[in-house]
Amino acid sequence: MNRTTVSLIAGTAALAAVTGFATLSSPQAAGTAGTATELPVERTSLLCPSPSTSDIAETSYTSFTPVTKDAGGDGKAALQAAAEKSDDKSKGKSKGKGKGKKADKPVLAPVEPGKPATGDTSGGDAPALVGTAEGKFAPGWTVQETTQVAAGSGRGLQGVNCSAPDTEFWFPGVSTAADRTDYVHLTNPDDSAAVVDIELYGKDGALDSTLGEGITVAPHSSDPILLSTLTEEKQENLTVHVNVRSGRVGAAVQALDDKLGGDWLAASTDPSGSLVLPGIPKDATAVRLVAFTPGDSDADLKVQLASPSGLITPAGNETLHVKAGMTASADLGDVTRGEAGSLVLTSTDASAPVVAALRVVRGKGDDQETAFIPATRPVGARATVADNSAKGTTLSLTAPKGAATVKVTASAGSEGGEAVSKTFTLKAGTTQNVEAPVPTGLKGTYALTVERVSGGPVYGARTLAATEDGVPGFTIQTLPDDRGMVAVPEADQDLSVLQK
Q1: How far apart are alpha carbons 309 and 429 in whole angstroms?
Q2: Which of 1, 107, 232, 278 is the most exposed place for a label (fewest CB within 10 A)?
Q3: Taking the chain (500 residues) in consecutive chunks of 10 residues, what is each chunk's mean pLDDT?
Q4: How far apart are CA 430 and CA 76, in angstroms?
């Protein structure tokens, strides 16, 4: 159907401003001279999975929106409990959580951009949360969910950045082994049901399972799906593909280990021939790489570590061969050797994109704990991570392709304190655990915002470490671009090349 240039521009501008996920750049290849304007998004949605089934779990939520120029003078944001439906699900799907309508009272409602807002829950009945931010609260809105579990499977510190709803997710690094209990949490924020397929891929390809097909997630509800009930095969290293047939969902994997604690595994960035997995703790005692290629061609990955001194090749793990449609893994040991590090993967064949994640272990004996680092998007213009503390926070930044300069801002504290900024220069191919700023007169928790000032792409991750009842724990969150700004074409642009 033909559309006029004006109507296409208007539709794109409206979609971009509302969602933050629509970007239409000038088609320079067609010889046009138009330019695009960067505008703040006007509405953002985030979904937080149900944190824990443990009665002794304590969960905190921290919301933060950086101050954004031209974002407008009004707006609002709120996190509400996803409604819960009471029917027990069969065929390996756990009991859904909801009654079919949204809760009325917000769990958390920020007051102003530039200052974190906090909330908390206790026990194992905490629901999934559905959040919406509008106006000045929308650009760069981020919410951190952090849970401390003192004992039992998955004990330690579990953290996840609440994520936007989407239609496809990849999770390399899951497991159906006997000592692991992994759930895929699916949260539907919309007024209509979503239909989802869950596919599992192991070392020999797709696992036989029909129980993951056609899972219905009711409106405003959340379902945790136990992976071991979808297949009889017990494998240590698997990749999960979540594909949404209709509607959209938020998705995250909760990986609980009987001996090694547990954490959330966020989705890997889209399949690509070049991936960066930033922020491996310098004291990691074991690092496992899990990769998968969804295409028809095998992938040969060049494995490099971006260290403080530059790119190096881990001895004995120079490459990883990933067969098409199969999950491959490699144990890298204590690959960082006591220094900050990030993994850089490059496929020798551009037609064989991959997804990847790391499972990281710290500690020894009974004090071991686990976290995950998925391949992530670069910081881009700006990225933010919330729920930082004066002690126990490590910010890791890497510039794998070229030197870069970044500005790091510590926000005001949730209960008091003034924002502080620092500028750092990263050498090409290196990773640095930077001395991130802390708010002056800090009270409460604070956010860290990273802005790339110049140079090549920058990737980042934040590690939180804490001890609860003598049990050490840690969790890692990556810092992808916050997508707070979108490119909207000027009204005089000729977009006829895009008409159909």
Answers
A1: 8
A2: 1
A3: 36 42 35 68 95 85 94 90 52 41 72 93 82 96 93 85 97 96 96 97 93 95 95 96 98 94 96 97 96 95 97 95 97 94 94 96 88 98 96 96 98 96 98 97 97 98 84 91 87 48
A4: 40
Specify whether the backbone of 175 is left (phi greater than 0), alpha (psi in -120 to 50) or beta: beta
Which pLDDT value is given to residue 491?
60
pLDDT in tens, 70-122: 888 899 999 999 874 433 333 334 344 443 444 567 888 899 999 999 998 87
Look up residue 450 and give its two tokens. 């990273």
What region does 294 belong to: left with phi over 0, alpha with psi -120 to 50, or beta? alpha
Query: What is the Cα 58 distance to its own chain's centre?
Result: 21
For the chain, state the CA radius of gyration.
22
Who contacts 117 (Cβ-Cβ below 8 Å, separation ≥6)? 62, 63, 64, 108, 109, 110, 111, 414
In the chain, what are the helix, strand and coil shares in percent, each to the nearest 5?
Answer: 5, 50, 45
Residue 165 structure tokens = 């709803």
**pTM attached to this predicted model:** 0.88
Instruction: Judge residue 1's burial from the number of C-beta atoms within 10 Å of its C-beta, 0-12 exposed, 13-18 middle, 19 or more buried.
Output: exposed
Which residues are registered as beta bridge partners of 392? none
Q: By the 8 A CB rule, do 482 and 137 touch? A: no
Which sign, positive or negative, has the C-alpha torsion 488, 492, 494, 500? Answer: positive
Which pair of structure tokens corresponds to residue 387?
Answer: 């729920």
* C-alpha angle 184-199-478 in degrees, rounded to nearest 5: 50
pLDDT in tens, 263-311: 999 999 999 999 999 999 999 999 999 999 998 999 999 999 999 999 9
What's the pLDDT score for residue 405? 98
Residue 81 near residue 128, CB atoms below 8 Å = yes
